[in-house]
Backbone:
């Protein structure tokens, strides 16, 4: 069964270091997302990506964050200079068709997450 | 803005019914979803309900939607130890990117 894969599963980094989290979405999906969950808090939307560009980003997704889909298969999230408060579980997700079309449920498929710990 | 609220914990005995509740704010949501997260795994779609329905049944799962109160619930009949997981309520917004808004998740613990 096709699945979304994320690497690394856990990364520990020093404050101020750059981090790249990698995701391979399901191959025929068109919509890509990053979410994060700080321990005990909500799963928060970070950014959505469609047609090779960011379609929406949240207030959390400031200039320290960037996303890329460099080769048509990988989808990466880069944090340029990590802060302590960036410690969280980061989830990549993809979707084939949006629920905007009649009768389309719009199921989001999630990866297992990358746990980022900033010291 | 959009917001989804859930209680954090629920503990039930094996064989009992579990009811997980959720409130949301965006009345224009097209679909409302329940996702399940087992330990070490990503979130997986469990069931969903279209916003013009008030109930959906799927084997042991019953989803109830009260649009007036913006309240969604998930009932699991005959709860089993394998149902122990975190359950997330989510709504999809009908804006261009169809981002999902999730709650905190409710951790369900099933006691043998």
Residues:
């Amino acid at each position: 069964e096709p699945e979304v894969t994320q690497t690394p599963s856990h990364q520990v980094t020093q404050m101020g270091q750059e981090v790249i989290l990698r995701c391979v979405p399901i191959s025929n999906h068109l919509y890509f997302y990053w979410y994060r969950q700080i321990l005990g808090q909500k799963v928060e939307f970070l950014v959505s990506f469609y047609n090779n560009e960011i379609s929406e980003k949240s207030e959390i997704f400031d200039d320290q964050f960037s996303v890329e889909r460099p080769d048509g298969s990988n989808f990466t999230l880069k944090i340029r200079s990590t802060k302590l408060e960036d410690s969280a579980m980061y989830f990549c997700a993809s979707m084939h068709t949006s629920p905007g079309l009649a009768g389309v449920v719009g199921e989001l498929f999630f990866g297992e997450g990358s746990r980022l710990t900033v010291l | 803005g959009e917001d989804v609220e859930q209680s954090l914990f629920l503990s039930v005995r094996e064989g009992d019914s579990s009811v997980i509740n959720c409130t949301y704010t965006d009345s224009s949501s097209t679909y409302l979803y329940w996702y399940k997260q087992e330990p070490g795994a990503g979130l997986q779609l469990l069931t969903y309900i279209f916003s013009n329905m008030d109930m959906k049944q799927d084997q042991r799962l019953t989803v109830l939607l009260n649009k007036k109160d913006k309240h969604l619930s998930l009932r699991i009949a005959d709860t089993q130890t394998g149902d122990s997981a975190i359950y997330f309520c989510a709504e999809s917004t009908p804006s261009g990117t169809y981002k999902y808004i999730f709650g905190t998740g409710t951790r369900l613990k099933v006691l043998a």
About this structure: Residues 86 and 92 of chain A are 16 Å apart (CA to CA). The first strand of chain A starts at residue 5 and ends at 7. Chain A touches chain B through 29 residues (CB under 8 Å).
